Amino acid sequence: MKQSRPSDLSEEELGFRIRGPVRWLLPSVLASIGIKAVLSGIFGAYADKRELQSSLPADGYQHGTDELWFDFVADLGDGFDATYTVASLLAAPALEPVDGLRLPRASLLVMGGDEVYPAASSTAYEDRTKGPYRAALPEPADPPTLFALPGNHDWYDGLTAFLRVFAQQRPVGGWKTEQGRSYFAIELPQRWWLVAIDTQFGGYIDAPQLAYFRAALAGMQAGDAVILCTPTPAWVHAGAGGDTHEYDTIRFFDREIIKPLGGVTRVMLSGDSHHYARYSERDGSGQRITSGGGGAFLSASHLLPAELTLPPKVSRVADVNEVATFDQVSTYPDAKESKRLAKGIYKLPFRNPGFWGLTAGLQTVLALLVQFGLAGESQGIFGVMAAWTPAAFGVVFTILAGVLFARFGLKRSGLAAGVAGFLHSLAHLALMLAWAAVLFRLSQSAADWITVLVTLLVTPVVVGFVDAELVAAYLLIAGKFGFNMNELFAGQSIEDYKGFLRLHINRAGDLTIYPLKIPKVCHDWKADPTASPETPWLIPNGPTLRATLIEPPIEVPRGTTLPGTDTTAVL
Q1: Secondary structure of 393-423 in the HEC alphabet?
Q2: CA distance 511 to 571
Q3: Within 13 A of 264's CA, how many CA atoms are on the CB side?
Q4: Measured by CB atoms within 10 angstroms of the end CB, which terminus of the chain is less buried, N or C?
């Protein structure tokens, strides 16, 4: 049954509700995500959906014959404008990023993680992912196929909604789905394979998953090339000398599954970080690419390491004969632009009004508690202790909140995080004490009603605003040292600088990667009710959308490792 085309952008016409970008520093979002992350980690340890997937279909897949065009997109399903902008270009019959270069629509789309924000649910997927993608490609004559790898946000409900959306062979708009689990292996043309592993929450690969890949990759031959998709770009942190746990899991999979079959991992792809970053193997053709521009807020790129040593020396599965250096070749946005964008954090109170409300409430409560303490100073020692106890708890809470905020931003504990958080808390307390002194002096010279009015009106509006800007200043300073970089950009919810990868395996067996960027997303759409059924429901009410190249196309030969040697020959 064909669905009628919408005549406007209402929920009744579209069948889904257009959502704005997630405001990540809203108190409600922070609390909700924090609780869901904790619960998913706890229950995931006892009821891991990957272990339970052993009863689900365990098929291997095959796409393409002589050649294949396919796409990789990640970190989508946030605000409608950004998600739909990217989906519209993925669905376009062809793209012309430069004059004379025509890239036909891919017959296979791989979503590389975090298909919805801020957390997985049936409603969130419908409004933020399925709806926009259905509107972008409603009824194609030749439906492409969609595979999806879950990210941490897809895991926040234990993977329940993800499996219902992507693993029950139900279409997502004009894209058909095939996968039966949260991980998959696809045999591509010319002895290429695409392998997507699910390593969320714990960074290990479960026994059913290993058994699946052993069976699905049984047809792999010596010298076959592999494109390995992972939920996070673990190579960046590990290769720069950081924690190696997640990268060790990738190395374990490579040594346990791919190498025994004779395969060679030529390319690793991931999202999770919402930018484009490519590292190329020095004296080799291996590529490590982060492409997380599918719709979520922009992430910083200016603190990325210039080179990676992989595997790192501290890796538990390292092999001195396999160590390689990967050089940073390109990022989008580039480092200069990323630094400039970081300064936009001063807009924090306006981009996240609820956060302004949080700091307003904090400063108002602290101001009242201090005034309460001052009022009790004439009541003897026990009266003073009773009067100042609430204020003391407020101070302790502020310090703990600052320390936890810094440690959360670093995703690990440590002295540096503790010191940064403590100093951050002192700034808020200094503002509180300065304002408390002003209120105290006012109470000595003005009528009580004036003091009360100033306390309850000026404190939340003015002092709360200044306090929010204190957080912005902390994030900007801390970001220079690598602290709270995610919050520095999440607080801005930058929707522009999107992108995805279009890949092509030609008849000679070579892979070409076209990294595509969309500098500005569209914010003004109109319905197109009289257009043909296969065209997008909504079109820009202005200039036509266009994707351009981030950098020249990347050529990756399939190659093969000669038996008994460490050299690579191109077939």
Answers
A1: HHHHHHHHHHHHHHHHHHCCCCHHHHHHHHH
A2: 13
A3: 24
A4: N
**179 inside domain:** yes
Which residues are bridge partners to 265 per DSSP? Answer: 226
Question: How far apart are alpha carbons 30 and 378 in whole angstroms?
Answer: 41
Identify whether residues 86 and 126 lie together within a single domain.
yes
For the whole model, what pTM was predicted?
0.88
Evaluate whether 22 touches 117 at the Cβ level (below 8 Å): yes
Cα-Cα end-to-end distance for the chain: 48
* Final residue of a structural domain among 490, 521, 536: 490
CA atoms of 467 and 348, how far apart (whole Å): 11
Q: Are 167 and 179 in contact (CB under 8 A)?
A: yes
Same domain, 530 and 454: no
The DSSP secondary-structure symbol of 297 reads P
Q: β-strand 192-196 against 184-188: which pairing, if any? A: antiparallel
Tens digits of residue pLDDT in 54-83? 667 777 789 988 999 999 999 998 999 999
> How far apart (Å, rounded) are the C-alpha atoms in residues 504 and 67?
7
Quote the CA–CA distance of 395 and 283 in Å, as a whole number.
56
Q: Rounded to an integer, what distance in angstroms lies between the CA atom of residue 231 and that of residue 110?
A: 12
C-beta separation of 501 from 289 below 8 A: yes
Q: What pairs with residue 554 in β-bridges?
A: 513
* Residue 4 belongs to some domain of the structure: no
- In tens, the pLDDT along 447-469 reads 877 877 877 888 888 888 888 88
Contact 257, 214 (CB under 8 A): yes
* Cα 29 from chain centroid (whole Å): 15
